[in-house]
Amino acid sequence: MYSNIWRNFISAADKAANTVILAVGPVFIALAVGLIGLATTVYFTVVFPSFYVWDEDYIWTKIYYYLGLIFSIYMVVCIFFHYYMAVRTKPGGVLNVGTEQSDSNDPTIQDLFLELEEYQEYPKTCKKCHLPKPERAHHCSVCRRCVLKFDHHCPWIANCVGHFNHRYFLLFMTYLVIGCFYFALVGWKPFLLSLGETGWEWSMPRPYVALSFLLAVAIGLALGGMCSWHYYLIITAQTTVEFYNNQYARRTAKAKGEVYVNPYDLGPVLNLCQFFNVGRNL
């Protein structure tokens, strides 16, 4: 009896936590946009003019200035664009028959049925949403639906990372990590000045500059590790969920004297091409 009570308590707590994660998604998005916006403002008002000095007498200084400006604008546009696309793009899912369709480029559920029936007599069914479960699809406990090529649910985009938005999510992280390290590289002098009491010539308050620099370093290191992890998963043709499933499969196969082979692994180069949708169709 006590074990049932405990299981019911854990299940209720898990549902409550997932509900909270789903509800606070817009707050995380606003916080992310606010922090990136703050760092961008600090960069263009303090860091950029302190690092790229305009000199009328030297043409190379002007070229250097414009190249830095173009690069900076390009990075900011890429960060915000890919973040917007990661948030707004549906990851892809299995929906109720005859009532809805998934993303505009997704096949209907009837087409999924037919495709699944070609490979097995009885298609897999999700135990939670009771819908057909395509290969590499997993159920998200936060969104309460199956997601195609599910990787994880990210509260910072209030969305699942799946088949159709994983590329945007990864490129957002890539550009943000590069931007953070670049900010730290060219902004360390204004940061040191912001810690003192003299020598401050910009209208931006010192605490904002110090906070932006520390955020750039912290986020660059933390997100850099996560970004590297995702690139490893991509070149090995895995999602985060599949990585742990494959680890278990490898241990099981090893115990039987066998070798587990990931059926989706085409090699690092082809895996990257497939993920970024470049080269020939696979």
TrEMBL record:
This is Palmitoyltransferase. Belongs to the DHHC palmitoyltransferase family. Signal peptide: none annotated. It catalyses: L-cysteinyl-[protein] + hexadecanoyl-CoA = S-hexadecanoyl-L-cysteinyl-[protein] + CoA. It is an enzyme of class 2 (transferase). The chain crosses the membrane at residues 20-43, 63-84, 168-188, 208-234. Keywords: Acyltransferase, Lipoprotein, Membrane, Palmitate, Transferase, Transmembrane, Transmembrane helix. The keyword Disulfide bond does not apply. GO terms for cellular component: membrane.
